[in-house]
Design a protein that fits this description.
The protein contains 11 helices and 8 strands. By secondary structure, it is mainly alpha-helical. α4 packs antiparallel against α10 and α9 runs antiparallel to α10. The radius of gyration is 25 Å and the shape is globular.
Length: 270
């Protein structure tokens, strides 16, 4: 009896074999690109340099480590139980992000906040979030509105308790939720990356008397406009909310001049 040919048979996508010949796996050509699910790195792929970087990044962003604080390679090697190679790699990465300053023959220090970078980040964030909130108006569901109202209630509770760090986290969750509701969660990832200097600066503004209440009022104005289906008012409310960050830079720059690199006039609009 003649052997059965597989010519003209349809590939079975479930097991990668040719129908009619279950013992012949489908071959891939050398250099053929990936298919199916994404194959990017995951948190399990972190190196020692990544771990040092993430720890320092978090401490700098939260202002646990203040601008100008010396950073010792030797201390970090002992703290993390690693050699100097991953520590130096982490510090070089932070230096590229302007989070540490490496001064020849002097040492490494937590970076000061460049006013120029701060203003540019606020302008970029404002443009992206105004677009986000306009799209949220078109896409928000009743469940989304319930979630946003719950977030406002949580912010109120944390403000009443004076819990600044959890309030900042709730603020982040609020803005991230808007991006997800608008269908642009990836844009929030971009915003998070570009606003690192803004996050540091905000740690100075949150303890300001009346600041938390002002943030809640501004968030409420955004939510009210979204619920009313008014994209123009929602966009304007978001713009005014984010503009407040720029208005106070000069004040905090004068109160803490050692925390900033004064490389641009605050009123020099971009």
């Amino acid at each position: 009896m003649a052997s059965e040919s597989t010519e003209g048979r349809t590939p079975n996508p479930k097991d990668g074999r040719v129908s009619g010949n279950q013992d012949a796996p489908r071959k891939r050509s050398p250099g053929q690109g990936p298919r199916g699910a994404a194959r990017f790195s995951s948190s399990s792929d972190r190196t020692s340099a990544d771990i040092v970087y993430e720890k320092l990044h978090g401490a700098i962003a939260s202002m646990e480590l203040l601008p100008g604080t010396p950073v010792s390679e030797l201390t970090l090697t002992r703290e993390f139980g690693v050699s100097r190679t991953p520590v130096r790699a982490a510090l070089q990465r932070l230096a590229k992000e302007k989070l540490v300053e490496i001064v020849p023959k002097s040492g490494t220090f937590v970076g000061r906040i460049p006013v120029s970078g701060l203003i540019e980040a606020i302008v970029a964030r404002r443009a992206l979030e105004v677009m986000i909130v306009r799209n949220t108006v078109d896409r928000a569901t009743p469940d989304d509105m319930t979630y946003l109202r719950d977030q406002l209630a949580r912010q109120r509770m944390l403000a009443d308790r004076g819990e600044l760090a959890p309030f900042h986290a709730a603020d982040e969750a609020f803005h991230a939720a808007l991006a997800t509701m608008a269908g642009y969660p990836g844009i929030w990832d971009i915003i998070r990356t570009l606003k690192i200097q803004v996050d540091r600066y905000r740690q100075l503004t949150l303890p300001q008397e009346g600041r938390l209440e002002m943030v809640i009022r501004e968030h409420t104005a955004v939510v009210d406009a979204i619920e009313a289906g008014d994209a123009d008012t929602a966009a304007r409310a978001m713009e005014e909310h984010l503009d407040k960050l720029q208005l106070d830079i000069e004040v905090f720059g004068q109160d803490h001049p050692e925390y900033f690199i004064h490389d641009r006039a605050v009123d020099d609009q971009v």
